[in-house]
Amino acid sequence: MKKITLLFVGVLASAFTFAGGPGENPKSVSGMEVVKRDDNSFKVIYKSEEESDVKIEIYNQQKILVYHETIKSSSGFTRPYSLNGFTEGEYTVRLDNGSNWMTKTISMAKPEKLAHLISLSDGKYLLTVAGKGEDKVHVRVSNDQGETIHIETTPVYGDFAKVFDMSGVKGVFTFEVSDEAGSTKTISK
After folding, report:
1. Where residue 100 falls among pLDDT bands split at 50, 70, 90?
2. What structural domains and CATH numbers belong to the chain?
3. Distance between CA 5 and CA 11 in Å, rounded?
4. Confidence check: pLDDT of 23 > 70
């Protein structure tokens, strides 16, 4: 009988050890992800084993709270957030589910108008500029002495592409591409 009692006490002690012991309340398993949707919006994806009120806070680079809300009795959600009208920079998303805080940082920045200069053949180059909406593309081409050899401003709607014949230019030449918003990209070949 003594052996059975000792065995029972050992099993009970093991059960308390694996369960976290008496009086301990283990945290539920939960997770959050922040996914950028476009230039100024993102979505928060959250999932938990247990339902709870979920607090969401968004802070700017200066650690100033710019948005907060509480979602009642949730065990999971996908929720979009927009930062239209906010300045560019790093934003921190904090989520509290009552058991723990989860934190993610996301960068919200206006995309640079990407200009690409692709070498074709016989000294010809294709200049492409990815765009959105109506704009003006300014192109200035200079030689290795810094002299302007071509300049143009073209109204565009969306993307821009043009072939330039650079076969007559000796040495290095530089394309400076800009838009109406002031974004500039310089490419030298």
Report:
1. confident
2. 28-108 (2.60.40.3080), 115-188 (2.60.40.2550)
3. 10
4. no
